[in-house]
Write a structure and sequence with these properties.
Blueprint lengths: L7 H15 L17 H20 L19 H16 L9 E2 L6 E2 L1 H22 L8 H14 L2 H5 L15 H8 L10
Antiparallel strand pairs: 1-2
């Protein structure tokens, strides 16, 4: 893929988000999502804005035009174009970051992280919002246990109470018997792994 980076976890997460957006039926963009206050279009706007935010912090270039935390629900371009532009910008930015970089600028507190944790946080955002879009529109869960395990260290390092208070992630849900790695990751981000739109 043309936007592949040296970061496998980011490549996989970007593909989840891209595929989820491609799989949305034409009449499903206003459906509710696991992000209780947002519909599918708004989750896409938020997810794209977050990817642009990471790119902006790394490169110093422009960030999202709209506030990712107050998505309007109206897209300036096609959904595929919106997500592709954001993914391309994010991938290009992370491609400039050395794998052993100790301090990478990021848009979430404390605003600098090691490359490994920072790229994991960026990938977590794309993958989890890809899951939100997928399950809201009747697609199967795109998360794999392998990716969930790879994302959990970044989730544990970055999803702190200040982040939850800003509304980036809801309060964690209690683990349930039989949870696998995907369910554990989703519960940590405040999501119900069995969520459905009905």
């Amino acid at each position: 893929m043309s936007d592949a980076t040296q970061w496998t976890v980011l490549n996989e997460a970007h593909e989840i988000l891209r595929a989820a957006v491609r799989g949305v039926p034409a009449d499903a963009w206003t459906k509710p999502t696991p992000c209780a206050d947002w519909n599918v279009t708004q989750v896409l706007q938020h997810a794209a804005g977050d990817q642009l935010g990471y790119a902006s912090f790394i490169t110093g270039g422009p960030g999202p035009e709209d506030n990712p935390f107050a998505p309007s629900g109206t897209l300036a371009d096609s959904p595929e174009a919106v997500v592709e532009s954001a993914i391309q910008a994010s991938a290009a930015a992370w491609s400039t970051v050395a794998e052993d970089a100790a301090e990478v600028p990021v848009p979430i507190p404390p605003n600098t992280m090691s490359a490994e944790i920072g790229v994991g946080a960026c990938a977590l955002d794309a993958a989890v919002h890809g899951w939100d879009i997928a399950v809201a529109t009747g697609q199967p869960s795109p998360l794999t246990p392998e990716l969930a395990r790879a994302l959990m260290p970044a989730a544990q390092a970055t999803i702190t109470e200040p982040i939850r208070q800003y509304g980036m992630y809801a309060a964690p849900q209690e683990a349930q018997a039989g949870d696998d790695d995907v369910a554990a990751l989703l519960r940590f981000t405040g999501r119900n792994p069995g969520w459905t739109a009905s």
